Amino acid sequence: MSKSASSETVVENQKLLIIIPTYNEVDNIKPLIDVVFALNSPNRVMDILVVDDGSPDGTGVCVKDIQKKYPDNLYLLERTEKNGLADAYITGFKWGLERDYSLFLEMDADFSHNPKYVPEMLIAARDHDVIIGSRNIAGGKVKNWSFLRNFISKGGSLYSRIVLSCPVKDLTGGFNMWNRNALNTIMLDTIISKGFTFQIEMKYKAYKKGLRIKEIPIVFVDRVSGESKMDKRIFAEAFVSVWRLRKCMN
After folding, report:
1. How many CA atoms lie within 13 A of 9 on its CB side?
2. CA-CA distance, 239 to 34, in Å (whole number)?
3. Which of 135, 111, 127 is nearest to 223 (CA)?
4. Among 54, 164, 175, 250, which is disulfide-ready with 113 (CB 3.0 to 4.6 Å)?
């Protein structure tokens, strides 16, 4: 069976919700939405939920305009405050769990996560609970990052793996697919992390609870438009938070 046929079989009778948190992504969001929806077919239907934290650049207004083109598949949650990545994803997950979605995908708004990997992730979701788009396994890599940023990212993942005794190679990556069972098992209301440490906590809890995890290689390309949300505080938070996670789960 061909890969394309397999991916459509995998999601037959299943609905995928792609959650895209945004803050000042007006230049990226429309092209990304168009690329994602180009992957839809009669047997593979994906919806998008944009969770916008009150972007002053008009991202929310832009999404409302795009909804006219995709009235049945594009949704928007507008929030008045910048509540952060973790809260945006948890809000999106809960929104989808209240409806009939069975698969959930985290995706950045800046094309760092190439939608072309979605069909492969759907294939893997046939017999796994968590699919991780991994930069740190064979075939995975990062483009357009400085040596220092790449070193810090890989070092952060390695540090977290050692502290938590967790075999997941890319603990900090944000291109992840979860099935409904995984999110219910992790229990979203127990998540304590804010910001990017949220990614570590979700994967660590998935591992500790015995969920079936698979990493597939991706090429992560740094944004070409807009401003990066990464700063030194994020790495400082992660350095401390992994010890708190270890204590909570042991």
Report:
1. 10
2. 37
3. 111
4. 175
187's tokens? 């229990």
* Tally of CA atoms within 13 A in the half-sphere of 191 that contains its CB: 29
Question: Any idea what DSSP says for residue 219?
Answer: E
Give the domain CATH number at 198: 3.90.550.10
3-state SS record for 187-213: CHHHCCCCCCHHHHHHHHHHHHCCCCE
d(CA 1, CA 14): 20
Residues 60 and 55: their CA atoms lie apart, in Å, by 7
Average pLDDT for the chain: 89
71's CB contacts (< 8 A; 6+ apart) are: none
Q: Which domain holds residue 93?
A: 3-249
Number of domains making up the chain: 1
Which ranges of 11-80 does DSSP label H, i.e. alpha helix?
Answer: 29-37, 59-66
User: What confidence category does residue 231 fall into, taking pLDDT thresholds of 50, 70 and 90?
Assistant: low
Q: How do residues 171-183 score in pLDDT, each as one tens digit?
A: 999 999 999 999 9
Quick: pLDDT tens for 141-152: 999 777 777 777
**Range 58-77 burial, b when 16+ CB lie within 10 A, else e:** ebbebbeebbeebeebbbbb
- Angle at CA of residue 217, ends 213 and 114, nearest 5°: 110
d(CA 99, CA 1): 32
How many residues are given for the chain?
250
The token pair that represents 222 in the structure block: 């740094």
